[in-house]
Amino acid sequence: MDYQVEFRDVSVSYGKDVALKNINLQIPKNEIFGIIGPANAGKTTFLKAINRTLEFIHSAKTKGEILFDGKNVQQIRNVYGLRRKVGVVFPLPVGLPMSIYENVAYAPRRSGIHDKQDLEEIVVRCLKQAMLWDEVKDRLDMLGTKLSGGQQQRLTIARALSHSPDVLCLDEFSIAIDPVTTMKIEDVLADLKDEMTIILVTNLVQQARRLADQTAFFNKSELIEVGPTEKIFTTPDNQLTYDYVTGDFG
Amino acid sequence: MSSEVTNPFETNDQERRGKKIELAVKYSTLAMTWLLIIPVLAIIIFLVYKAWPALSVEFLLDNPEKKMTAGGIWGPLIGTFFLVLVSLIIAAPIGILAGVYLNEFARDNWLTRFINLAVVNLAGVPSIVHGLFGLGAFVYFLGMDRCLLAASCTVAVMTLPVIITSTKEALASVPMSFRVACWNMGATKWQTIRTIVLPNSISGILTGVILQVARAAGETAPILFTGAMISSRIADSGWDAMVPYGLEDRFMALSYHLYIISTQWQNVPESFKFGTAAVMIGLVIAVNSLSIGFRIYLRARKKW
User: Fold this and answer.
1) Are A129 and A193 in contact (CB under 8 A)?
2) Half-sphere exposure of A214 (CA within 13 A, CB side)
3) What is the pLDDT of residue B139?
4) Residues B57-76: pLDDT tens digits?
5) What does the pLDDT look like over A89-139, one tens digit per residue?
6) What are phi and psi of A18, to 5 degrees?
7) CATH class assigned to A1-85+209-250
8) CA B21 from chain center: how many Å?
9) Residue B5 sits at the chain A interface (C-beta within 8 Å)
């Protein structure tokens, strides 16, 4: 079986604080992989380890092997290429202080696409996929930072899609978006599954249940349980998992 | 019956005292603010009043004659201009690049902390010490002799720490989340700096540099031993009057000129002394207003 992302005995610590403890995990291609768990469980660290943005936190130390498409990410020379293969959306919307068009064209430009027609095609496609196109198609030269919070978050999603990633990591993407738009984006994610692997970190356990093929439950830096979503939500092996998904946690 | 209704918003002693203190704080801070403004206004009015007989276009454009008993201040004025220009050409690139390194690349280790400490301490070094340092380092050790270049280097060293600090602050005002977003899209650190960080902090950086113009123009001590001279004959008109000093020439400068005509030379008309001082203050105010105006303009088009 081909795995898109594989964690082999991975531990991450920030100085003395352990953020991930001996994680072993396989994420198959073209799946939506849900990650649930309470605050401080190591979910965000997990995402940052994949595209090596942990390196920007100087105190972070990673042990073990992380394989991306079968290759150890620590041995990938072109780390910028690796990062373009991973799209990341963080909980808080970040519109870059440039036009909406430039926000989405930013990553393609960095990867060497300069043809105006190609760029425009990418911008339109990504904005449509992020359900933002209809609202901004007449004002693409407006500053991305002047959009509302929910619109900026969809702009962030469009940006994450703009470099045609193999993996899309969504870190609680919906906390700044209204429920209607959230549902629309969830539909898009279900469609995108054919093109890429999606890792969905979410605090809304029902969102994981709706979308994910497999779900992993993290707690206190450890992977408690991983399995098919239906199983995790109905008959998990671990009592902690059961308590968490039924809302009887803590 | 109505007299028995109690007012729920009646003030008690605690609230009355709070209100008194509130007023006392408000008016004492207001008084201190006025105390600050009054001397500034007084200095300007006094200077302009005393300098009025001398102030004219000729005073600015003529060279000093007969030990400053006639003529104007063109020589020192253009000397100060070149001093500021050359020193900023040296200090601005070094200071800005160092600031970029310290804020964007340097890790938080003992070396970085040591450099930051050195920068802060360098900013507190008295200007006369800079002057003596320049004399030793540039004039003697590097063998420049006393000249415009040596003086400019000395002034550059003096302005560097402030340029570094203001650059760092301007860069730090760009939210970290912008950088993180770019890094996640596979941008290198430099691409991120070039496309996001610098375009949104250049106003703060330039404001810091502009403010150093006033400082470079005003200080006497750093140029005292490194290149300023009491008086030199320069051309009265034409190209030679516009660019009277080469990098290896000694030069006149406003601050030093003012020092000489107020303490060393006899029979200088009073209005000439005050005129020179008024022009210097005028320059400082003009440069500072420029930087404030610049900041207002750029803040109006702030992008987030």
Assistant:
1) no
2) 15
3) 92
4) 888 888 888 777 778 888 88
5) 998 889 999 999 999 999 999 988 999 999 999 999 999 999 899 999 999
6) -85, 130
7) alpha beta
8) 38
9) no
Residue to mutate among B109, B113, B185, B302, with most A CBs inside 10 A, is B185
Q: Is B301 on the interface with A (CB under 8 A)?
A: no
Q: Dump pLDDT digits (tens) for B72-94.
A: 888 889 999 999 999 999 999 99
- The number of CA neighbours under 13 Å toward the Cβ of A12 is 30
Residues of B in contact with A95 (CB under 8 A): 304
- B181 interface with A at CB cutoff 8 Å: yes
Under a CB-based contact definition with an 8 Å cutoff, are residues B255 and B261 in contact? Answer: no
Domain ranges of chain B: 2-51, 57-300
Looking at CATH, the fold of the domain delimited by B57-300 is given as MetI-like fold (1.10.3720)
* Domain map (residue ranges) of chain A: 1-85+209-250
Give the Å distances, CA to CA, from A71 to A4, A50, A82, A198, B130: 10, 11, 10, 18, 57
In angstroms, rounded to a whole number, what is the distance separating the alpha carbons of residues B160 and B156? Answer: 6
ipTM, interface predicted TM-score of the complex? 0.90
